[in-house]
Design goal:
Elements lengths: L5 H4 L2 H18 L4 H18 L11 H24 L8 E6 L5 H11 L5 E7 L2 E6 L6 H16 L5
Antiparallel strand pairs: 1-3, 2-3
Helix pairs in contact: 2-3, 4-6, 5-6
């Protein structure tokens, strides 16, 4: 006799979230601490399923270019923060800016907003009226160009057509 909840528990969506959260745990915890990780992974996957979080459909052909761009941006962001910490006299021109989004899917927008904070000198604050409100450390730096390139790479990776 089949269990009524078994179809939902082992759906493709739930499996996706289980694998994603397990991979994140493995990366962040260095492959250790599974006695703590498994309950959190199961809880997070259950919540993602319950909330109806959509599964990302990643284009594998676009993944290498996205990862290379992302790693470069991540290193540049880390280097920028380190330089500003070591050389406090570096010029700052902080500002609140609005970036017009071409990403349409709400989940993809949230992922994009999360990734923007890893670019040099940027921090996403809110999504309002199809724009991403951001704080930049130096408005004279090319924040607009790097943000647009990240958005285009993410659109290609997720297979979404721009608005």
């Amino acid at each position: 006799m089949p269990l009524p909840w078994a179809g939902h528990l082992f759906s493709r969506q739930t499996l996706f979230w289980l694998l994603l959260y397990a991979a994140l745990w493995w990366l962040l915890a260095g492959g250790t601490g599974w006695y703590l990780g498994v309950p959190f992974i199961l809880t997070a996957a259950s919540l993602s399923h319950w909330l109806g979080s959509p599964v990302w459909h990643v284009r594998l052909r676009a993944a290498p270019a996205f990862l290379l761009f992302f790693l470069r941006a991540l290193l540049a962001g880390g280097w920028d923060v380190a330089r500003r910490a070591i050389q406090p006299r570096m010029p700052l021109a902080p500002a609140w800016v609005r970036y017009p989004l071409t990403i349409r899917q709400p989940g993809n927008r949230l992922l994009f907003a999360s990734l923007v904070g890893l670019l040099p000198g940027t921090l996403a604050a809110a999504i309002e009226d199809d724009c991403l409100n951001m704080h930049v450390l130096d408005q004279h730096q090319p924040w607009l160009d790097s943000t647009a390139r990240l958005e285009q790479r993410l659109l290609r990776l997720l297979g979404e057509e721009p608005a």
